[in-house]
Design goal:
Helices cover about 50% and strands about 5% of the residues. By secondary structure, it is mainly alpha-helical. The protein has a two-stranded antiparallel sheet. Helix 1 packs across helix 3 and helix 1 crosses helix 6.
Length: about 150
């Protein structure tokens, strides 16, 4: 449902929220490794999120990405809107441009319900909630297990 950009953005934001504080900034290599995304692509996504004030960054030797307490309260929908806009929450399930309540496609009514439920979940779930689950070890933001060097 989400674009790759949005998937990586959500995963990166949750990872940064769980691990990045102003005194503990996280660099692109660490983020991209832990969310299994290309570094260059991740950097572009994170800059968009910084410009949208969802993340903070600092350049330099001790630089990296982090979230302040206010940013941690953003909802997942804020990340989606910054990266993909609202198309997911208003578009047709079949990708038709003319699909509407007046001229529906065969999926219209069922997809509208799914789309509205997804939007509600994204509007009511904070990044911090997801980060807390990640920190407890009950959730993950990557496909494969990280193995410590030498193992």
């Amino acid at each position: 449902m989400f674009s790759k950009t949005c998937e990586y953005g959500i995963r990166a934001t949750i990872y940064i929220c769980a691990n990045g504080l102003q005194e503990n900034k996280i660099g692109i290599p660490d983020i991209s490794k832990n969310i299994e995304a290309p570094s260059h692509f991740t950097a572009k996504i994170l800059q968009i999120l910084v410009h949208s004030d969802i993340l903070s960054s600092q350049k330099g030797i001790n630089g990296g990405f982090y979230m302040n307490s206010q940013q941690r309260q953003h909802h997942l929908i804020d990340v989606v809107r910054a990266l993909d806009g609202d198309v997911l929450f208003s578009g047709c399930g079949l990708g038709l441009k003319k699909c509407s309540d007046d001229e529906p496609c065969p999926l219209h009514d069922k997809f509208k319900s799914v789309r509205n439920n997804l939007k509600k979940m994204m509007e009511t779930t904070t990044i911090n909630e997801m980060a807390r689950m990640l920190k407890k070890g009950r959730k993950f933001v990557r496909e494969t297990e990280l193995v410590a060097d030498g193992e």
